[in-house]
Each structure stands twice: as structure tokens, then as C-alpha cells.
Design goal:
The chain is α/β, with parallel strands linked by helices and about 300 residues long. The chain is built from eleven helices and ten strands. The protein is globular and about 60 Å long. The structure holds zinc ion.
Length: about 300
């Protein structure tokens, strides 16, 4: 019954979307209306679009982005978007179901299409926003789309993009420089979110949970991880701000590891946003903690 209702609402939404007058950017006093699926893409849209775009996220601040399901109201709002930017690579399980019906194909940007993806055992790692080069590439696509919709403000978008790119390149160089002399080549993390960081800066992740934080490990896997920890003489285990699997606590209890935060930036909390934190400041904090585990 519930499924039927959802189906009917979807049909209704599609019909409304099809009959409403083609909206142009000039109708929108707020500027380009950009919907992003979650925080890192919102960050890019905000930085590049500045005052000329109104950026929104589907996953509300403070909520874990894995397995988020948007409400019907949110899907309805999405039909109003001038641009919809999503991660792809199976990160948003809901996108495939709605992408053709809710968002016209030419309005959507699938970020993963522009990235060098990690594929392991046939499974794509969706955490591509943790590779700074990917952020620079996706930013370029967003910049060009803004210019397409609002050519008269081309210079503004170009300058914002150059500014952001410069900060991302600087951050990337800082990571390369400060992680180059490692005493340890692996870190223990709560879920398998850091493959892109690990690839770019030359270390390995030992994840407690899988690609999604709710993929809890078997007792055997936990035993294996604890054994690895003893062998490798790790001092730290990394937890996350939003979602950390219960089993991480078990490992902390079984070992003498000190807990540090490594934020996969799958979302920010309301408080983080209000205190002026963003993708770059959190990546800087991540670097400080990575250095403790890998270098110092
Ligand atoms: Zn994740």
C-alpha cells in the first residue's frame, strides 16, 4: 500500500514537472538554484557560485549521508532545481530511482563521471570527495555549468573557481609535504571511507566496517584487525564525528589504542557550519591527526 502511494506521488510529481512552464534562470531572483545531494558538493557550489547561486543540500546538516532517503517534499523541491549535483558511484541509492523522472537529464551533474575512481573487487568506492584532485575536477564542471546558465557573470564564476582551486592545491601540497616521511604505512579507521586519501598520500587504511558505516564486521574480522594492530604497533584508532560503528568501541577496549578523529566529511553538523568550519578546515584538522598516526 505504502509503495503504491509512493508510486502515485512520483507520477504526480513527474506530471507537474512536465506541465510547468520551462523555467529560465532569469525567473529566479535568488540566482541559480542548485541542489546538491550532500555537503562536499554543496561546498563546491557555494564557493564557486558565491552570491549568485542559492545552494541547498538534500541530506540535512548533521545527518549521516550513507543510506539517507529524501522525503517526498524534498523530491518535489528538487523539480525546481536549475542544477542538481550528486556524487554517483552508488553513494546515493535514491538517485537512480528518481534521476530520470524528477530531474531532467541535462540538469544533473554526476560528480563521479569526472573522477579517477577506485574500484576494488568490482565495487566502486564512492568517497571520491576525499581526493583533492577530484574536487578540483568536479569544481571545474560546476563552474562551466554556472557559466552556461549565466554567461554575463562568467568572470565572477571563473575568479571564484581559481580562488578555490588555489586553496585546494595549497592544501594538497601541504598533505604531500607533511606526510612524506612516514614511520607507519597504515591507519585503523572506523569505516572504509579513506581509500582516496590513502591512495593519494601513500598509505593504507585498515577499516573496521565496510564501505558504509552500517556494514559491521564479523567477529573473525574483528579478531583479525586486533591481530594486525598488535603486529603493526599502531598507537591510534580513528573515529568519525557522525557515524562510528559499535565494534570500534570493542576494538578500543581490547587494545590500548588512543582515539583520534578522522572526519570523512560525509556531512557537517549545524554547529560546525555556524562556527565557520568547512571542507578545507576539516581537511586541515584531518591532516594534523593523520600526522600523529603516520609521521610523529
Ligand atoms: Zn562513507
Amino acid at each position: 500500500m505504502k509503495r503504491l502511494l509512493v508510486f502515485l506521488i512520483l507520477i504526480m510529481l513527474v506530471l507537474t514537472a512536465c506541465t510547468s512552464k520551462e523555467k529560465t534562470i532569469n525567473d529566479n531572483e535568488e540566482g541559480i538554484l542548485v541542489y546538491t545531494s550532500f555537503y562536499p558538493l554543496y561546498f563546491l557550489a557555494e564557493e564557486i557560485g558565491g552570491d549568485l547561486v542559492e545552494a541547498k543540500t538534500i541530506v540535512p546538516f548533521g545527518v549521516d549521508s550513507h543510506d539517507y532517503e529524501p522525503s517526498m517534499d524534498q523530491l518535489k523541491e528538487l523539480t525546481e532545481a536549475d542544477i542538481f549535483i550528486y556524487n554517483g558511484a552508488n553513494f546515493e541509492s535514491w538517485v537512480d530511482k528518481i534521476i530520470d523522472s524528477i530531474v531532467e537529464g541535462n540538469k544533473a551533474i554526476n560528480a563521479s563521471k569526472y573522477c579517477d575512481l577506485i574500484v576494488e573487487d568490482g565495487v566502486v568506492d564512492p568517497h571520491l570527495w576525499l581526493d583533492l584532485e577530484n574536487m578540483i575536477e568536479v569544481g571545474l564542471v560546476i563552474r562551466d555549468r554556472f557559466i552556461e546558465l549565466d554567461e554575463k557573470n562568467r568572470v565572477y564564476y571563473e575568479e571564484n573557481y581559481e580562488n578555490l582551486k588555489e586553496r585546494l592545491v595549497k592544501l594538497d601540497n601541504k598533505y604531500i609535504e607533511e606526510l612524506k616521511d612516514k614511520r607507519n604505512d597504515s591507519i585503523i579507521v572506523s569505516h572504509k571511507a579513506f581509500g582516496y586519501l590513502a591512495r593519494r598520500y601513500g598509505f593504507n587504511q585498515i577499516p573496521v566496517a565496510g564501505i558504509s558505516p552500517d556494514q559491521e564486521p564479523s567477529p573473525k574480522t574483528i579478531a583479525n584487525i586486533i591481530e594486525l594492530i598488535d603486529e603493526k604497533k599502531h598507537d591510534y584508532i580513528f573515529l568519525e564525528t557522525l557515524a562510528s560503528p559499535k565494534t570500534v568501541e570493542v576494538i578500543v577496549e581490547e587494545t590500548n589504542l588512543e582515539v583520534l578523529v578522522l572526519n570523512p566529511i560525509e556531512n557537517l553538523t549545524e554547529e560546525e557550519i555556524e562556527s565557520g568550519q568547512d571542507y578545507i578546515t576539516i581537511m586541515e584538522k584531518n591532516l594534523e591527526n593523520l600526522k600523529k598516526a603516520l609521521v610523529k
